[in-house]
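S.,

Sequence below, as promised.
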Amino acid sequence: MIILVLNCGSSSLKYQLLDMKNEEVYDLLAKGLVERIGMETGCLKHQATGKETFIKEMPIEDHTVGIRAVMDALLDKEYGVLNTLEDIEAVGHRVVHGAEEFVCSQLITDKVIAQLEKCSVFAPLHNPANILGIKAVSAVLPSVPQVGVFDTAFHQSMPSYAYMYALPYEYYEKYGIRRYGFHGTSHRYVSAKGAKFAGLDLECSKIITCHLGNGSSIAAVLNGKSIDTTMGFTPLEGLIMGTRCGNIDPEIVTYIQEKEGLSPSEVSKVLNKKSGFLGLSGVSSDARDLNDAANEGNPRAKLTLKKLTYEITKYIGAYAAAMNGVDLIVFTGGIGENNSRLRRRVCENLTYLGVKFDYDANVVRGEDTIISLPDSNVKVALITTNEELMIARDTMNIVQDEE
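The prediction came back faster than expected:
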């Protein structure tokens, strides 16, 4: 089954075209990115497997035009991979927020779109763009089934004592204020893949998954189900991230508003766009730049990386306590898969759990690897994530069940 996977942002869309033979066997046919949608000049970057990257600048007024540009690239005689659009059998969409409406991936219908629009209040920057992508595909490929895969769905298995905040209960009833969690597609993928890779039975396991990148979150996965995660009502909560502050005393928000004379939207921008690695280090929001600066002796870059290491270590300890033990710790995401020094520093603080670290194995980057010694009480692994494959799997299974 040939499936187009879309991840639509407010002014961009990423895509992959996969030929799914089954859940484990597939071919990546093409991938790409459409940027600057709605601006004077947009850009399409298209990479068919085994061919040179094709780059085209042109006006891209909206997501429908962007989707049409993707279709044209897929059909291009030189850079394309399809003979006709009828070859596309299904489209899978990453949808950021499903609130309590969606506990699993769903076939897109008018009713589902209406529910997604209600959920947009929780993700005003993301869900509307996801919906635009769905509607754009409907305009270009009206007869092709579409599936929504939700970042929040995996975490809907959290117990109420983990997802509720100690605020007046009426705020939950009126406004849906609770912990939702994000990166669920990645946590679901790497916990299952990690268990298999480490020789564990997923349905009888205690796994901590660390998705570390520009946005980061950690999840406690008990017997294959999420029971807690660091991100909350929004992706702002939890670990320090590229530009997000992570956990802070909530009273800081009103204090900054008063001292700086900021509006709610302005202080939100400070917390989401000007904080994290960027705000604390004053160097960059990119961990690679922080590593370079730390190696050059920059004290604030060192502080930022130490804080990240400390918070990861602290959450691993908390989730090991929550599950009364841990069998496997997984590192994934751009930082988790590529920063061997961070993995080492975290694991050196986990000897109390019985972690025995394999320093030689840890030198790898972006390759599924066990980085604990054979006699370690807790296995530690680098597991590469693939959210697009997870979306394609769900899409294939749902569409086949409907046939």
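The chain has 14 helices and 14 strands.

Coffee later?
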